[in-house]
Amino acid sequence: MSLSTLDAVQSTTSPRIEAPGIGYALREQNRYVLNDPAINAVEITFERADDPLRIDRYLGEQEFEHVGIHALKLSVASPDAPGHNYLDTLLAIAEENEAESISDHLGFTRDGHNGVEMGHFAPPPFTPAALDVTCRNIDFVQTFFARRERRFYIENIAYLFRFEGTLTEADFLWRVLKNTGCGWLLDVTNVYANAVNFGFDPYDFIAEVMPAADRVQLHLAGGFFDEQAGMYIDSHSEPIPEPVWDLYRHALDQGRRKIDTVFLERDQNYPDERGWRREIRQVRAIAEETCCPR
Asked: What are phi and psi of 206, to 5 degrees?
C-alpha cells in the first residue's frame, strides 16, 4: 500500500482531531490583542460585564468562534440554590455576547442565599452530604440554563485549607461530574497549586477525574511560591511556569476530543504586547502539537 493510499485510509477511519478554541479571559489590558490570529475564543468574567453603567455589548464589535461566561458567585456548595436574579442577569450577559457556555467554581462564597459574601472561594467538605447538596444545586443551575441551550461547567478551585472529609478531592469531583453531567472547567494551575501545597500527584488527579467529564474547558495561569506561607499561590500575576506547561500537555492528552476551549488568565503584572502575544501563541502551539499531530 502506498503512503498516499495509507493517508487516505487513515483520514477516513480516524478523523482529525480539531484543536480547541484558544483565547484570553478578557481584561481591558488585553482587549487590544484579541485580534491576534492565535485567538479564536474569549472568556468574559460576569462580574466585569455586569456593569449598570455599561450600555454597549461587552465584546463590542468583535466576534469569536467560542465565547464563555465565567461567574464568581453561584456558590454551588452553599446550602441554598443560587438566586434567580443572579441567574437571570448571568443568562442575559451570555445571550448579549452570544456565549455558548457558563461556568463557576466548585466551592462556596457564602453560607446561604442571603449570607454575607466572604470575598473568596472556600472548598466544600469532601463528604457525601456536601456532595448531595452540591449536585442538587448544579442540577438546578443546569436546568435553568438548559432552557436557553447554554452548557454549564464547574471549575476545580485552588485552596489554602481543607475541611475534614471522607472523600478525596478527585473522588468528590469525579462524582459531581458523573452525577450531574455538567462540564469540567479544568484549571490546570489550580491542580498544580493544590498538588504542591497538599502533596499529591497532579498527573494522577487529572487522569482520575477526566473519564467522568463529557466536555472540558481549561484554565491556565501563573502564580508564585510564597516562601513565608510555604505555599504556592494561584495569583494570575506571573508567566505560566514550566511545570504547568507540562501539566497542560498532559491534560490535553488525557482530554482528547473532549476539550472545547482553553482560556489564559492574567489579572496582575500585565505583560507588554509582545508578552501577551507570545504566551497565547505558545498555548495554541502546544494544543495543536498535542491534539493535531502531523
From this structure: -65, -40
- Model pLDDT for residues 70-113, shown as the tens digit of each residue: 999 999 999 999 999 999 999 999 999 999 999 999 999 987 77
Name the band, by pLDDT with cuts 50, 70 and 90, for residue 15.
low
- The DSSP-derived string for 51-63 is -TT--S-TTTT--
φ/ψ (deg, to 5) at 103: -140, 160
The closest alpha carbon to 284, from 258, 263, 257, belongs to 263
Strand 101-105 with 216-220, pairing: unpaired
Q: Per-residue pLDDT tens for 82-93?
A: 999 999 999 999
Task: Please choose, from the candidates 184, 90, 221, 76, the residue with its C-alpha nearest in 3D space to the C-alpha of residue 139.
Answer: 76
**What is the rounded distance in angstroms from the CA atom of residue 91 to the CA atom of residue 83?**
13
Residue 285 has pLDDT above 80, yes or no: yes
Q: Are 196 and 148 in contact (CB under 8 A)?
A: no
Q: Which residues contact 284 (CB under 8 A, 6 or more apart)?
A: 19, 22, 38
Is residue 152 within 8 A of residue 141, CB to CB? The reply is yes
Tell me which residue of 179, 35, 47, 53 sits closest to 106, measured CA to CA: 179
Spatial CB neighbours of 259, under 8 Å, sequence gap ≥ 6: 20, 216, 217, 218, 251, 252, 291
pLDDT in tens, 256-266: 899 999 999 99
